[in-house]
Amino acid sequence: NYTLDEYHDLSEQMAFIESIAQRNPSFVKMGTMGKSFQGKSIQYLKIGYPINQTKPIFFIDAGIHAREWIAPAVALWITNELTNSTKYASLLRQIDIIIAPNLNPDGYTHTRKGYRMWRKNLTPQPNQCFGVDLNRNFPFYYGFSGTESNSCSEIYKGPKAASEPETQALKNFLDNNKQQIKAYITLHSYGQNWVYPWGYAVKTYPPDVQDLIDLGNAAQKAIAQVRGTQYSVENSADGMYPAAGASDDYAKSLGIKYVYTVELAPSEDDLRYDFNLPANQILSTSTEKSRGISLQGFIAFALV
Ligand code: 0X9
Ligand code: ZN
To answer: Whose CA is nearest to atom 12 of ligand 1?
Structure first.
């Protein structure tokens, strides 16, 4: 049986979401966004009452970077929480929450097989190197900053914009649902940062940036209330570094209002861990995150 306080293989993650959908047909449905290079399905759950109605969507994804294990773990914790409690019934009558817990199944599987620090997907590339950084492959200011053309680089942007099947899967989903999607959160690690667009250049912001800051601050407060964990709310380029072709900028470019990349635990100055957050911290990281995110969901949709 699936345990929420351990890291799992892809097959266990997928079996878990499938079983949630099977057990809750009145408000949970599983779908496929596309396939990875190796042919693995990129799955998502739609959660909302009644299941066949179209409502405003709050979209959460995780795992675009393979080694950031805490991100799928938190996404799956949130999925369990939303589907295992009556607490969210009224929220789920107002909105649909769509969760894609693992966007890079090939890369993730690679990290589970011993290549723990793998970040990219696994498509063959020139110079006998493998993989594209999917978070540099989206078609908005593609190649503009924070990326490399060398196929052996960790931040290789790929041969062209949206060249990768995993990029295409998410892109198509966002393109097809952009009218309904009101908020997009992409879970990464690490740093404990809650960052907003634009990420492609410093000091460059969307016109409604103040709304993104306000909601980010509300989420930050909700997270801190759980056990004092501090997230920084900042522009991703100013606060971290400029990097173009990421999924957050692409989502924002489609007109999706509330867009954030969330860098989960640990913080930058926790020198003990990096991508290897101990499994015994999954639950605490998830609890505080769900507070921030559910508040996020509420406020975002109250404003629709
Ligand atoms: O560099 C990234 O892709 C993200 N950080 S990570 O350490 N998880 O790799 C940050 C992306 C922030 N968004 C943009 N720069 N658009
Ligand atoms: Zn990442």
So the answer is: 236
Q: Which amino acids are annotated catalytic?
A: 263
ipTM for the assembly = 0.99
Q: What is the phi/psi pair of residue 195, to 5°?
A: -115, 150
| Nearest-atom index, ligand 1, CA of 198 | 16
**Residue 119 CB–ligand 1 contact under 6 Å:** no
**The domain 10-114+165-302: what is its CATH number?**
3.40.630.10
261 lines ligand 1 (CB under 6 A): yes
Q: Do 140 and 250 form a contact (C-beta atoms < 8 A)?
A: yes
Q: Is the CB of 243 under 6 A from ligand 1?
A: yes
Confidence of residue 297 (pLDDT cuts 50, 70, 90): low
Counting atoms of ligand 1 from 1, which one is nearest the CA of 248?
Answer: 16
Residue nearest to atom 3 of ligand 1 (CA): 135
Got the DSSP string for 186-223? EEEEEE-EEEES--SSTT---TTHHHHHHHHHHHHHHH
One-letter amino acid for residue 168 of the chain: Q
Query: What is the overall mean pLDDT for the chain?
Result: 95
Kind of pairing between the strands at 96-100 and 41-47: antiparallel
Digit-coded pLDDT (tens) for 76-134: 999 999 999 898 898 999 999 999 999 999 999 999 999 999 999 999 998 999 999 99
0.90 surpassed by pTM: yes
